[in-house]
Design brief:
CATH superfamily of the largest domain: Periplasmic binding protein-like II
Oligomer: single chain
Strand content: 15-25%
Shape: globular
Largest sheet: 12 strands, mixed
CATH topology of the largest domain: D-Maltodextrin-Binding Protein, domain 2
Radius of gyration: 23 Å
């Protein structure tokens, strides 16, 4: 599941900290593998100033969450016997494992089940209690990766966002269309073949459930209990020009599509770049939520002190304000019931912060039972194969 955007280009960045004059000991290093642009550059500078005892802040940046998940799966390579001989040892040392890695909440269950990460001790995180309860519960899982309020803590949320609707503001104005407010706009006849959707069953089936009834959840376990779901999905599929996880916004820029559904960190930069052409809205019936987390790899060192400081630093209220102000996503310190208490400096970030009412109708994509997973897969394949046939016939001129 690919998502979202980032600010440091792909590669490795090494930041030298200031050496404390009163310490003669060798300074430790903090190694982090993170998602590109998920941390505003201003906060990296603040972290350096806050933790001057750090000798090296080693950041490896990846452009996709999938690559970060795969990096957790890579096992350290055992050295050949001859490389252990002093005279034949390789000049380059093996790169140490990261202390923290960005992981999307969607991947958390798989990482736990595959034993790729180790649990965190919330008692050692002094700002843990500043997190809204929903985010504390999101990362409490059992050994199978399922939500368990008595389970261990497997990640530290550091930002969150939504799935939203982007649309061509200029085209809607020229044609006299009302601006989108909710998911039902995707079914309007005037948008036939003018929509691009994420190629994700949980997202598309979930928004259709919300269109049917805003009380429905993205985590509905028994799809067969929603009799109109299949017909609504088929009707939606007839509206769609194409599905994509990576290129769904390019046709919107070109005007080939007039509406796109996507992740907020993909859409918000586009709104900023083309303010007279493209606008966006968080659907009023509720939407899907996502969170990016810091996780501690199983193969990481046991020295968690600097990693703990990094996590706690991001949860300080004043830092959370700066994060939400300069970033393209919100700090979890401001979520849920705290949306009514936003500081003045970030109250205008309406595309980052939905109203508390809309937020309450929204859902994180939680793990489903095996039976429910199969229901989603079967329904998705039926709809998508039908749609592919229709689009193929159109492309052939019939």
């Amino acid at each position: 599941m690919k998502r979202r955007d980032f600010l440091l280009g792909t590669g490795t960045v090494t930041v030298l900290g200031l050496i404390s004059a009163c310490s003669s000991q060798q300074q430790a290093s903090l190694r982090i593998r993170l998602l590109k642009d998920s941390i505003p550059a201003q906060l990296l500078n603040k972290f350096r100033q806050e933790f001057q005892q750090i000798g090296e802040l080693d950041l490896t940046v990846e452009a996709q969450l999938l690559k970060l998940f795969e990096s957790l799966q890579i096992k350290p390579k055992s050295p050949d016997w001859w490389s252990r001989l002093p005279l034949l040892a390789p000049r380059e040392k093996v790169r140490p494992s990261s202390d923290l890695v960005t992981l999307g909440d969607y991947w958390l269950a798989a990482a736990i089940e595959q034993k790729l990460i180790q649990p965190l001790d919330p008692d050692r995180l002094k700002n843990w209690q500043k997190l809204p309860l929903q985010y504390q519960r999101l990362v409490r899982r059992n050994q199978q990766g399922n939500i368990d309020l008595k389970g261990e803590v497997w990640g530290a949320p550091y930002r969150w966002g939504t799935t939203m609707i982007a649309y061509r503001k200029d085209i809607f104005q020229d044609r006299g269309f009302a601006p989108p407010q909710d998911w039902d706009v995707l079914w309007k006849p005037e948008l036939r073949d003018r929509i691009s959707l994420l190629d994700q069953p949980r997202e598309v089936i979930g928004l259709t459930l919300k269109k049917i009834d805003r009380q429905n959840s993205y985590n509905t376990q028994q799809l067969d209990k929603i009799p109109q779901l299949k017909s609504e999905l088929k009707a939606l599929d007839r509206q769609v020009k194409f599905y994509s996880n990576n290129t769904y916004l390019q046709p919107l820029i070109l005007g080939d599509t007039w509406v796109a559904v996507g992740w907020s960190t993909d859409i918000l930069p586009l709104v900023q770049r083309y303010p007279n052409i493209i606008a966006a809205v968080i659907p009023q019936s509720g939407t899907s939520l996502w969170a990016d987390l810091w996780v501690h790899p199983t193969k990481a060192s046991n020295n968690f002190d600097l990693a703990r400081d990094w996590i706690d630093f991001g949860w300080q209220p004043e830092i959370a304000v700066l994060f939400s102000r300069f970033g393209k996503a919100a700090s979890p310190i401001f979520a849920g019931e705290k949306l009514n208490e936003l500081p003045k400096s970030i109250r205008d970030k309406q595309l980052i912060f939905p109203t508390a009412e809309v937020y309450q109708k929204s859902d994180f994509l939680l793990p489903l039972s095996p039976t429910a997973q199969q229901q989603y897969l079967n329904l998705w394949q039926e709809i998508r194969f039908q749609g592919l046939g229709l689009r193929d016939r159109k492309a052939g001129g019939s």
